Amino acid sequence: MRLTQLFLLPILLIGMLVLAGCTQYHPREAPVVSSLIEAQTLPRYLVEKVERDGGQVVHIGETVSIVVPATELFNADSANLQYRGIELLDDIGKLISAHPSQLVRICGFTNNLGSPQRNKALSRRQAQVVSNYLWTQKIDARMAYAIGYGDEMPIASNDDRWGRKLNNRIVIHFRYDTYYNKPIGVVYVHG
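Given the sequence above, the corresponding structure tokens read:
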């Protein structure tokens, strides 16, 4: 009976370790890089600076979305950049340049004040201004495109001033390429 218990105990422990996600490392196999490790590769000081200046950085897997209120970038109801908007776009350009990107999509959104055609045109112009500025920051123009949605996709109610302010936004999406370029900061172990 004791011999059976001695054999079952190591098997039980190994089973528990496997279920807990701890597996044996095989030196000939490349380790798996998880999204959590990749998330740490964004330059933290740049993320904090973008967020301090009014943007919000959302990172899921290899995709990064930067949400910026239009009031932080542009004068009211225009596509003219403010000075503080230029500083913020400089930081966003550095953040995007930190990883080779496959594609950068710049989306403009407005609230529902005014005609839908005017809102769509304004959001398209604002997105194009951001795209053009990022091009000056060494973001490849062939990999960046701008699109204006106008008031089509609100994230808040347009019934009050606060909701309208949230709906006026620029969203910059990029997905960095980990197939050809290993993420910065990840240690690869070779056996």
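The beta strands are 56-60, 63-69, 101-109, 144-150, 169-176. Try to locate this feature in the token string yourself.
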